[in-house]
Design a protein that fits this description.
mainly beta, six-stranded antiparallel beta sheet, about 0% helix, 6 strands, about 80 residues
């Protein structure tokens, strides 16, 4: 899968959600949506589901990798495919 929209140059597409530490700031891009800033809370052990808290609303949300949701972060180590 390729990124659907380019992100700001300082961000990288995180394909390994397990590599995202709790508290990490990220941008969430859902299919057909616009990038929204959030903070990582927890990834499931299989790395297919990610819990984040949206910064503007404070709302906690469960994201599914299978629906095409993309996570962009500033940490290059979290964007690896391992």
């Amino acid at each position: 899968m390729k990124p659907s929209k380019p992100a700001p140059a300082e961000l990288v597409w995180a394909t390994n959600w397990l590599g995202l530490p709790a508290g990490a700031p990220v941008m969430v891009l859902r299919p057909g949506g616009v990038p929204v800033p959030a903070t990582v809370e927890l990834a499931t052990p299989d790395g297919k589901i990610l819990w984040v808290r949206y910064q503007s609303m404070g709302e906690r949300t469960m994201l599914f990798k299978s629906d095409g949701t993309q996570i962009w972060c500033a940490n290059p180590d979290a964007a690896s495919n391992h």
